[in-house]
Write a structure and sequence with these properties.
Helix 5 links the parallel strand 4 and strand 5. Helices cover about 40% and strands about 15% of the residues. It has a single domain, classed as Rossmann fold. The longest helix has 12 residues. The chain has six helices and five strands. The protein has about 150 residues and is an alpha/beta fold.
Length: about 150
Amino acid sequence: MDAERVELLILDFAGVCTPSAAELIASGAPASAITIRPECESLVAQAQSAGVTVAILSNEISRDWIKDVPLLATVDHLVACSDNNIFKPDRRAFQRCLLLTGATAERTVVVDDTVDNITVAASLGMSTVLFDGSDPDAGWTAVREAMS
């Protein structure tokens, strides 16, 4: 990863860091089986070791989960949209990440599984990856390419 090019990686939680509810239902697993995708953990560690700040920006997350989800304690910023009732795809949710980190849009990569969120992030000048939960391996490959 080129830390000179990318300074901030913004990840959506449900659907990117974890399988989406639709994926969970399709697999037949119970809701308690939701886990962090191993590739996500690896990517976060790799990004941080390259000096990239990592933020999770999510409409559906609680800070109370930090004690139960180790990844949430590892990232540099956990941005819960419910904190200020500015939810994605509102551009201010993405701008909040920039303000918190001091990063520039041009050196930010956003990974999300929702087209509207990706569209807004791109309109702000951020690089984007539309993550397809039905092919997570291709998604992680696209994220790594965007980070290089």
